[in-house]
Amino acid sequence: EQWDKDRLEEALKTAIVEGRGMPDGEGIKPRLAYGPLRVAVTGRQVSPPLFESMEILGSSSTLNRLKALRARLG
Q1: Where are the domains of the chain?
Q2: Sequence-distant (≥ 6) Cβ neighbours of residue 2 within 8 angstroms
Q3: Best exposed site among 12, 18, 23, 41 by fewest CB in 10 Å?
């Protein structure tokens, strides 16, 4: 599969914001959903655009950073 900003944005929007990937089916507001992801991916609360950053970092680096966030959250 392609790892590009448009596909990343659509996948995360569908899974998190719209709630299709959430256990209760309830979505999360984008600001709340993407804030922790932004910090996990870029290390900062204020950063370049999230999806472009994920595309530039590549799938391996991005996924490793997200796995580290998941481990920290329990």
Answers
A1: 5-73
A2: none
A3: 23
What single letter denotes the amino acid at residue 22?
M
DSSP assignment of the chain: ----HHHHHHHHIIIIIS-TTSTT-----HHHHHHHHHHHHHSSSS-S-HHHHHHHH-HHHHHHHHHHHHHHH-
pLDDT in tens, 5-19: 999 999 999 999 988
Determine contact, residues 38/44, Cβ cutoff 8 Å: yes
Query: Amino acid letter at 5?
Result: K
- pTM, two decimal places: 0.84
